[in-house]
Design goal:
The complex is a heterodimer of chains A (about 290) and B (about 260). In chain A, helix 3 packs across helix 12 and helix 4 packs across helix 10. Chain A is about 80% helix and about 0% strand. Chain A has about 290 residues and is mainly alpha-helical. Chain B starts with a strand and ends with a helix. Chain B is globular and about 50 Å long. In chain B, the strands form two sheets. Chain B has a six-stranded mixed sheet, with helices on both faces. In chain B, strands 2-1-4 form a three-stranded antiparallel sheet, with helices on one face. The chains are: A mainly alpha (about 290), B alpha/beta (about 260).
Amino acid sequence: MKNAIPILTVLLALVVIWYLAAIGMNSAWVRDQAARAGTELTTTELVKQTLTLERPVLPAPHQVAAGLWDGVAGQKITSKRSLVWHGWVTLSATLTGFAIGSLAGILLAVGIVHSRTMDQSVMPWAVASQTVPILAIAPMVIVVFASAGITGLLPKAIIAAWLSFFPVLVGMVKGLRTPDAMQLDQMKSWSASGGQVFWRLRLPSSMPYLFASLKVGIAAALVGTIVGELPAGASAGLGARLLSGSYYGQTVQIWAALFAAAALAAVLVVAIGRIEGVTLRRMGLVR
Amino acid sequence: MMNAVIAANAVSLTFQTADGPVHALKDVDLTVGQGDFVSFIGPSGCGKTTFLRTIAALEMPTAGELMVNGMTPDEARKARAYGYVFQAPGLYPWRTIAGNISLPLEIMGFSKPDRAKRVDRVLELVDLEGFGGRFPWQLSGGMQQRASIARALAFDADILLMDEPFGALDEIVRDRLNEALLELWRKTGKTIGFVTHSIPEAVYLSTRIVVMSPRPGRITRVIDSTLPAERPLDIRDSPEFIRLAHEVREALREGHGDDA
């Protein structure tokens, strides 16, 4: 409970700031409307109206909460207005992309650790791949796949994989290299083969690094998926929900989708954190 | 001399570094017989660890001839001629003590029932019966090092190479482990190569003490112990022990020259 007090204090402060900002940013529109109608507004009425607009510049927290609640619980989950449905579309592409990306990252790391040539040739390209703005690449990936007749989950998953392989690659290269000279000498003194060193020493030693990078990787995969849902008039997923909200000035819908995405990211990161906790404790790597 | 287990003939090892060649070992001649307990003592940089590592084929001599059990060190390693105990126990935290001892056996392809039998036997040898199911963090530093000795013994190598195995432990634990090591040596009849920088430890344990000195790393004196095979801890107060320790100290001083 002691930990909850500072967290709640910060949350409360944020909500207060948010309400003040909503009143400030929406008041110009409300005053405009009142002037046009030729009516005088009391302060109470002004505040009340700024917090209940249908298309506010900045929706108030309770409006976002209501939008979120309506999107999650107020719709059939098969409905196109359901955030659960859109969330599932995004989640499935995120998980697929994350699986592809992590696997690619791990395999490349294994190659880099075991081959000098790969160490020198792969790393620069991996770094370069991450300096290209994903917003520029994503539409091209979607278009290229669509021209080959592939739409839906896979192109988005590729973009998610693009973003998530890199942290896994970097983390695993570091992790697979953690065994020190003494541990490697020990293995050598038993005439262990490269494969035995890998499976019995390098891979288990790398686990703390793997989990740390998976947490970064899955958040990146979610971002990649949402970015992949923005272009080409996508009709499903949290990204599409964000985009259609901005087309029609539905700010409440945008914010509700944003919070849904944030909650999804939090759930995914926490889930990996749990697996990490159990695994590392079982392996005796944390206590 | 009994048949030679380790035979070094003018062994030299030169590392090429950016600051020019470093002579880690220069013209080292040494014969170690079956069942000897040989300690290597000297200041840091004298090549004692390097020499142990060349015996284990973890380093290659750049000149001279080195035979282990009549084979090259590399062949000897593949023939499981030695178990090596490092300064740190190096136990894997994700394996139990039994799992750790079993690790080299798995790598060498021993069958599962054979592994279990061997683990039990060496655990008893180092007085850790009943600790096989524990994890390394549940054991004290001394017990961990004993487990690592058990691991080195598990595949029945004739030679035990130990590189300052008790260097990180406190004096009291160290005394106990020294006693236990002598007991184990008597019971198993292994040939032991033991690197240390402690004069009392070298004198207490060894049948032969090899004194080394740095720049270039070389053997300056080999002292045969006159102590009896049976050595209780209080033998360290005997005049004979003190005389030997003095002799080792003198030899170290001679070898040190002017760079002390």
